[in-house]
Structures are given as structure tokens and as C-alpha cells.
Amino acid sequence: MIICTKKKKLADLLFKKNASVGFVPTMGALHEGHLSLIEKSKQDNAITVCSIFVNPTQFNDKADFEKYPRTTEQDILLLNKADCDILFLPDAEEMYPAHEPVKVYELNYLEQVLEGKYRPGHFQGVCRIVDKLLQIVQPGKLYLGQKDYQQCMVIKKLIQDHFSGSIELVICTTLREPSGLAMSSRNMRLSKDARQKAVAIFNSLQQIQNHIQHTAFASLEETIVKSLLQSGFDKIDYVVIANAENLREELHFNPQKKYVALIAAFINGVRLIDNLLLNTEV
Ligand code: AMP
Q: Are residues 152 and 84 in the same domain?
């Protein structure tokens, strides 16, 4: 695997290769979920590029940024084993040169709800970094995890608005632990006890799936908030059943529509998110 820390060098390298490129952007602390994206990209493309960059502009909470797990040596071993072709590993100066004007992205409703509401500025930061990475890598296909459902919608808009839809977005299913807990770099920060309790998020999503046809959404959401608190979660940011196409909140089940349930909650001081498509495949 070639490790590249400079954007110019990476762009030159890819230009010379002149082959189909699949791109998997990450913040490192890699797990099997990330590796499933690499594997998918390898199936579809001649060259797979993975990036690792803990992007400061998408963290609205400084302590969260500082505590974010960083395991670069182990990540490199995993990427080598996965036969990834190129790792882009820039530092903050490389991605954010001093005095660079801040680009603003029009995300409208998408950044006002759910993650956008509870993490102000988060999606502007995500767009800033993904825009830069896509300009450097210029992939034919971009691989993202459904685990970050709203992020997928935001990046879809970024590609439409700023790359004329020229990059194909491939959304990959969420990999889970045998318990059902969605794999996440943040799980590394959970105590053994909290990791067991955290399974309640996935159980809640399934409970929602089993009841949406017959229960008003608001009452179902309220029941789930209460049961998560009882299961040992410290704080719930949201439990929402939304229209899967546009993330608008809905009140009752309509078989003509597709729904997604999304949860964000804190356990052991760690914020976890997960979601489940309720009546559709990805
Ligand atoms: P992150 O490093 O958390 O920014 O994630 C990098 C990419 O991996 C994003 O597209 C995530 O949605 C995806 N990802 C994270 N966790 C999982 C998972 N459990 N299964 C599949 N993809 C994931």
C-alpha cells in the first residue's frame, strides 16, 4: 500500500495511473465496518483509496475531538491486510491551509434536523473536508456507510451541487457486532458494561420496526426514549421516525411511504448513533 501525506502527490499519482478509482473517506480507528467499504470498493474499481483524517471542523465539541480514538499504526496494518492500494494520511495544515476562505454549503433543512440540530456546524465541516478530498482524489465511486444516514444525504447533495452528479455514491449496509450493536470507532471508548447496555439502541430500532404500522409515531418515540433511559443511557438527543427520502418527521404509517428510524444517545459519556430502514432495502 502506498501511503501519501501530501494532496499534490496523491493527485499526481492518481493522474498517472489513469484507472477507475473508488474512495473510502474515514476518520481512522478502523473496524470491520470500514473494511467492508474497502472490500466493496476493491470489487468495483481498479484502485481503492482510503483516507484517514480526524476532521476538526466537523466537531462542535472540542473535548469530543480530543478524545476521538487515534490508532494509526493499527489502521495501517488493517489496510495492508485488506489490500487497500493507497492511504491518504494528511495532517491538519495540509487540509486547512492558514487564511483559506471558508466555503459555505447550502444544505437547508438537511442541516437543521437530527445531527444538524444537535451538532451545530457539523455538516458544514463534513462538506468542507469531503469537498476537498473529492477534488483531490476525483473518484468514480464514493463509498459511505448507511450508519451515518443523514451524512449520506448531505454528501449526495454535495455531489449534485458541486460535482454535477459526476461521482457515484455507493451506500453500504451497517456492520454490526453479533449483539446487534452497530460497529463504531466510538465503541472503543465504552466500558464493558456500557457496551452491553448499548445494544438497547438496536433493540429499540427493531421495536420501532415491529410497531410502526399500528402505533402513532410520537407515542412510539416517547416509549423508546423512556426505555433507553431505563436501559442505562444517560441522555437521549433524539428518537425519530422520519421519511427515508427527505428526513421529514411523520406522524402515522402510510404503506406508500418509506421510513427510517434514527437514534442518537449518550452512554458512559459517549455519543452513539444508529438507524434502521423500516420498510425498504438500502
Ligand atoms: P468514520 O470513520 O466514522 O467517519 O466512518 C467512515 C465511513 O465508514 C463512513 O462512511 C461511515 O458511515 C462508515 N461506517 C462507520 N461505521 C460503519 C459500520 N458499522 N458499517 C458500515 N460502515 C460504517
A: yes
